[in-house]
Amino acid sequence: MYTQAIDLKPGTEPTAAMPAPGDRERAFEAAIADDRRIEPQDWMPEGYRKTLVRQISQHAHSEVVGMLPEGNWVTRAPSLRRKAILLAKIQDEGGHGLYLYAAAETLGVSREELVDALHAGKAKYSSIFNYPALTWADMGAIGWLVDGAAIMNQVPLCRCSYGPYARAMIRICKEESFHQRQGFDIMLALCRGTPAQKAMAQDALDRWWWPVVMMFGPSDSESIHSAQTMRWGIKRLSNDELRQRFIDATVPQAELLGLRIPDPALRWNEARGHYDHGPIDWSEFWRVIEGDGPCNRERLAARVRAHENGAWVREAALAHAARHAGTDSREAA
Ligand code: FAQ
Predict the structure, then answer these.
(1) Of the candidates 213, 202, 103, 98, which has an alpha carbon nearest to the alpha carbon of residue 158?
(2) How far is CA 218 from the centre of its chain?
(3) What is the atom index within ligand 1 of the atom nearest the CA of 58?
């Protein structure tokens, strides 16, 4: 994973005023045990720092790459109102990327290093954004299901042990909630429309359901990071627990829409108090995250192109900042 390739700044070196090594480890463990927040200036184990850089930057990349499938539909939205809403949603996603890169930077990595890792294909982003958005109904399915899954995963992250990540998640979750509703609203309009529109909504659900179910990550028995991340209070619920919560919440919504979830094994289990679901095709999941999904190459190429095309904006901003810094120092003198 790319965090190994990134030269993380070493943790703050102890000074006379700082606790001795054994004490600082105990202080960290006590903060975790008491459910207190760890802040950037606090001592933290290198593994904790690296795990956060990995997860937060993967999350930031997902938000930014996640703008692409929807970006394709801005010019084809069916009305001015739908277009304005979609534009606002996509802009929110860019904003989420910014908060998250900023949260990652508090851990001693630069945004440039993180973005380079993404463009070099070393850093992951969510598997879900490697699927194509083929019809307008996909804008509904992405909002309803992808944002719905994102909220399920992200609400517990508001209680993450790392302060900057937890605080970023609070605002992100509020915006994701609007995103989920706008998606459901698109689905509702289609399902109340003509038979062709309802069929389009069903087709989108058929194509997005399983990729969304996979989005929560491998099953708990295969999840290499979960045990440690949960012990550190980064993740609060396991991949399978979140997946189950998502399925339980979404089935009644599909019933309300009059749509059929494409899982013949899906049924309510009275004894468990949850829906049982059919087997997940994990070979597809691993293939997609290893770079061989339907749109991996296209998504990465689009991000690299956008970054190259934006070089002049970064250069202009730096030149402007340098000129102002010069003016300020002349004024101070
Ligand atoms: N895609 O041991 P675990 C959104 C990787 S935001 C790709 O279980 P962990 C908003 C994992 O990195 C969506 N890779 O890992 C939006 C690890 O590989 P590594 C993003 C995945 O970290 C909506 C390996 O598999 N949300 O949608 C995926 O404990 C609409 C083993 O897995 C977040 O990032 C996957 N789906 O749990 C935007 C939330 N799943 O790193 C636009 C924060 C697993 O060792 C439109 N992240 N992997 O090489 C998390 O909660 C966790 O990182 C998980 C994975 C749950 C994603």
Answers:
(1) 103
(2) 16
(3) 34
